């Protein structure tokens, strides 16, 4: 007797399709999301715009989110492709943040299980957590000790020790060329940053993936609309 198929891929694909569609229709401020390859729902490319009025203002930072086949029961990984100098980002770009850690009880980590990943989390909460982390690093368990020490000096001196800020600004400036290559205008004001625009469906790389999921429903809705239109026409003719 054949072993039962693993239920994860279809359920995780469906969850990812729904999330991608939601994020394209209601984008998270400061992010641009695409698939690395059209046919692969498990690898996303994210472009993060540096929030105005922070050290990262005007920056264009690229990252990959890689999802496991049992998502959302296990967390994805988040890795920056752009070189980042930050207390909670490893040299290889991996982000060290509680929300992306599996929900195991590990007293030595200093993290509560409630701070770790759980299936109610999603890409939207991850993106917002990463933005929050950029502005407010966790220096208690740093992934980059040198960056953590430098950040604390900058923070405790109220900006008089400029070494940390100067490194970040140099990295921000270095991202301008990639934004230009990608044809992206990076927002530099709060008004621009907070504008949410719907991704045109014809430009969306995910259409091929979730079209099949919704085509049947759309066709049924169209048929219902056609029938109701015919009924209204008939009633209009009777009135006249």
Automatic annotation (TrEMBL):
InterPro entries: Ub_conjugating_enzyme, UBC, UBQ-conjugating_AS, UBQ-conjugating_enzyme/RWD. PROSITE patterns: UBC_1, UBC_2. Its EC number is 2.3.2.23. It comes from the Eukaryota. Pathway: Protein modification; protein ubiquitination. The lineage of its organism: Eukaryota, Metazoa, Chordata, Craniata, Vertebrata. Residues 209-240 have a biased composition (Acidic residues). It holds the Pfam family UQ_con. Signal peptide: none annotated. The active site is at residue 96. Keywords: ATP-binding, Nucleotide-binding, Phosphoprotein, Transferase, Ubl conjugation pathway. It catalyses: S-ubiquitinyl-[E1 ubiquitin-activating enzyme]-L-cysteine + [E2 ubiquitin-conjugating enzyme]-L-cysteine = [E1 ubiquitin-activating enzyme]-L-cysteine + S-ubiquitinyl-[E2 ubiquitin-conjugating enzyme]-L-cysteine. It comes from Oryzias latipes. Residues 196-240 are annotated as: Disordered. Residues 11-177 form the UBC core domain. This is E2 ubiquitin-conjugating enzyme. GO terms for molecular function: ATP binding; ubiquitin conjugating enzyme activity. Belongs to the ubiquitin-conjugating enzyme family. The keyword NADP does not apply.
């Amino acid at each position: 007797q054949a072993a039962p198929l693993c239920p994860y891929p279809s359920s995780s694909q469906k969850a990812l399709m729904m999330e991608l569609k939601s994020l394209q229709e209601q984008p998270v401020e400061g992010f641009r999301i695409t698939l690395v390859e059209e046919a692969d729902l498990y690898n996303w490319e994210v472009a993060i715009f540096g929030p105005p009025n922070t050290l990262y203002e005007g920056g264009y930072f690229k990252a990959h989110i890689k999802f496991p086949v049992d998502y959302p029961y296990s967390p994805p990984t988040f890795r920056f492709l752009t070189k980042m100098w930050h207390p909670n980002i490893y040299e290889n770009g991996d982000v060290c943040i509680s929300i992306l850690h599996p929900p195991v009880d590990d007293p030595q980590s200093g993290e509560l299980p409630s701070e770790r990943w759980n299936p109610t989390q999603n890409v939207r909460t991850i993106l917002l957590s990463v933005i929050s982390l950029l502005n407010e690093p966790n220096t208690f368990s740093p992934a980059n000790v040198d960056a953590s020490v430098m950040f604390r000096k900058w923070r405790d001196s109220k900006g008089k020790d400029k070494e940390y800020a100067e490194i970040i600004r140099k990295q921000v400036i270095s991202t301008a060329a990639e934004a230009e290559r990608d044809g992206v205008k990076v927002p530099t004001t709060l008004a621009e940053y907070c504008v949410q625009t719907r991704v045109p469906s014809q430009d969306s790389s995910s259409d091929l993936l979730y079209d099949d999921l919704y085509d049947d429903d759309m066709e049924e809705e169209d048929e219902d609309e056609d029938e109701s239109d015919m009924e209204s026409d008939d009633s209009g003719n009777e009135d006249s």
